[in-house]
Amino acid sequence: MDLLGGDVDLNKNQAGLQLSDPALYINRELSWIRFNQHVLDEAKDLSHPLLERIKFLAIFSNNLDEFFMVRVSGLHHQLVEGVLKLPPDGLTTMEQLERINKDLIPLLEEQTRVWFEEIIPELQKNGIVIHNRSTLDGSKRKMLRKFFLRELFPVLTPLALDKSHPFPFISNLALNLAVILKRPGSHDELFARVKIPSNLFPRLIEIPGDSPPKGNSSLLELIFLEDIIADNLDLLFPGMEIVAAYPFRVTRDADIEIEEDEADDLLSAVEQSIGKRWIGAPVRIEISEEMISSIADMMGAKLARFPHMIYRVRGPIGFADLFCMMKLNRPDLKDVPYAPYIPGRLAHGADIFNAIKTRDIILFHPYESFQPVIEFLQTAAHDPDVLAIKMTLYRTGTNSPIVQALLDAREQGKAVSVLVELKARFDEENNIGWARALERAGAHVVFGVMGLKVHAKLCLVVRKEKSGIVRYAHMSTGNYNAVTSKIYTDIGLFTANEEISSDVSHLFNVLTGYSQYKAYHHLLVAPGGIKTGIISHIEQEIIRQAEYGDGKIIFKLNALQDDEIIRTLYRASQEGVKIHLQVRGICCLRPGIEGISDNITVTTIVGRFLEHARIYYFHKGGDPLVLVGSSDLMPRNLKRRIETLFPILDTGIRDEIISTILPVHLHDTIKTRVLRADGSYSRVDRGEGEPFQAQEWLIENRGIWNRNLMKSEVGP
User: Fold this and answer.
1) Domain of 686?
2) 488-495 and 468-476 as β-strands: parallel, antiparallel, unpaired?
3) Residue 627: which of 662, 599, 593, 575 has the closest Cα?
4) How far apart are CA 67 and CA 29, in angstroms?
């Protein structure tokens, strides 16, 4: 049986296996591919509106682009450098690359099948036609030729390939045409490359119509940018015979290495490294399925170090560009919008500091609005009693209202300290811009921490009140990003708890100075503290199970990879502790192996929103502990990042997480998939019960946890 990284006979008791046996672990990369397959499945789900299905095709493709730029490039480095260390699942580097290729090919074929057989016909039914060169009539071709001459011709630069023109550099993720030409009267074929300016124009261009057909006044006709260029190559190569033109694209290593120790400062090191992202070594070459073998072989010889790097693609290359279709003014083909809930205590105009001081407040995005977080900072910026604001920023996006509030705070004379993580992958340029703007405004800016990424999501407001100095903290599982807060599910907590606020203060001193503080009251802080704490709490459930038989653990997170934590969970299962893991993406643990993990269930949800919250629940004999925070259980989070998990001390909020938020996700019967011991997933067995979809229920009942809290007694 093929087990994504190892072979084990699941039909016999495995209690004799060592818990470090490779057969007990799923390969990280292959597990991620299973997650991305779930994204592709959503593109096939007819319950999604049509444009949302296209969005999932784009997400699937964008995920793959990043996977190759970061993960596959890392495997290439290992292969070239001769790294011999094996992952817990025991697959060698070459075995992983071969399996990645083998597993991806059917998914790519399925993606194009969905596009041509499902999406294109449905678009046509809804008055949206995507043309190709063969479906253009004379009038449309004439209009597009005018567009080509007016808009495209001036920016295109064909590059010849011959003895006097070496093979041109192909930049990362740039779409190109490989053009085959002949001189009049010659049988010799020539080769040229034309780069598609998809960074300057939408990938899909609207074709203006003479007059819409009767009965369909809303007809929208589109064509891919590369098809317009391919149809007018004679204008780029006058006097030449155009034999053929084939799209292709190169993906390059984009996992930049920052030489922190050798740089004068981290900002300069990151700036110097960003440009290298687009010129890294090739890791994937996507070519048209129709490309003739002589051109494909030439490209392979010039660009591919290994055979598995070449992918023949039927249909459009670079489906991620289809995000542009979400800009179409067709609300009937998109998700029905809804207004996120705002708790009454945080409604606009409310005394936000008094509300937080009265009782901790939880916000569950996107079901609840991110606006109170923005207003918390805006209020702090203009409140004369606020003395200081401290904050970590990882991914803030463009036009960030959060950063604007920090700039306003500086204008008002507040002391503002911000740790901007410059090494947030693919957000480096954004973060450099914000860091410089904050510095110019007089904020104290720290550009990350040497050797570590700061992934913790923290904000602290220091306020002078009649009773003395009061510190208000906001901690979250997600970024301070107003845009992604609408599509990622995240939990944020406002608190004025003195011990929590003290912990956050000490952690900021660690981030901005030389403090080596470790004696936190409640926070678990990585590196070190989170892994130690999680293992300790699992061990306590093992002890509790031995004494009382009621050990129980529930984790909801994005990724489970750390082998030591997996071994501890295996031991807990062997002792009878009931464990339910809901892991959105990578899961290297194999559930359901007799004698080892038969007390562990693993599920995943992929739906309208990206599940992003991390919740760690330990039963503790009926006095449960709930930890929430920024960290997944991966080596990178536990060893190479500064992360935080914080406990929910307010018993009312804790009970709402346990009785509402966790069960809603665990009882989903529509979007849930169950992980099997062999590494495959299956849909949950609905039985005879009513179908239940967690995210839809949470939309319909958004804010119910805060409404329940309003009815309960005040205080932790």
Assistant:
1) 524-711
2) antiparallel
3) 662
4) 9
pLDDT, tens digit, 9 for 90 and up, residues 72-99: 999 998 988 888 889 999 999 999 999 9
Shared domain for 285 and 360, answered yes or no, is no
Does 305 share its domain with 351?
A: no
Q: Which of 76, 131, 365, 455 is catalytic?
A: 455
Listed in sequence order, the residues at least 6 apart from 536 whose beta carbon sits closer than 8 Å to its beta carbon are none
The pair of three-digit structure tokens given for residue 188, joined into one six-digit string = 């010799």
Is residue 455 part of the annotated active site? The answer reads: yes
Residues 439 and 493 in one domain: yes
Q: Tell me how crowded residue 333 is: count the other CB atoms within 10 A of its CB.
A: 21
pLDDT-derived band at 192, boundaries 50, 70, 90: very high
Angle at alpha carbon of residue 143, lines to 138 and 147, rounded to 5°: 140
Coil vs helix vs strand at 511: helix
Predicted pLDDT at 659? 97
- DSSP line for 408-439: HHHHTT-EEEEEE-TTSTT-HHHHHHHHHHHH
pTM for the model stands at 0.93
- Residue 667 confidence (pLDDT): 95
Provide the 3-class DSSP secondary structure of residue 655: helix
Look at residue 637 and tell me if it is in a domain: yes
Res 684: pLDDT: 85
CATH of the domain at 127: 3.30.1840.10
Which tens digit of pLDDT belongs to each residue from 394-412?
988 888 999 999 999 999 9
Instruction: Give yes or no: residues 404 and 349 share one domain.
Output: yes
Residue 667 belongs to domain with CATH number:
3.30.870.10
d(CA 316, CA 366): 33
Report the C-alpha gap between 422 and 267 in whole angstroms. 7
Let me know if 535 is exposed, middle or buried by CB neighbors in 10 A (0-12, 13-18, 19+): middle
pLDDT > 70 fraction of the chain, expressed in percent and rounded: 92
Q: Dihedral of the CA atoms 381, 384, 387, 391 (nearest 10)?
A: -10
**For residue 708, with 0-12 CB atoms within 10 Å meaning exposed, 13-18 middle and 19 or more buried, which class applies?**
middle
Q: Are residues 191 and 289 in the same domain?
A: yes
Rounded Cα distance, 176 and 167, in Å: 13
| Domain end call among 472, 488, 512 | 512
| 437 and 528 assigned to the same domain | no
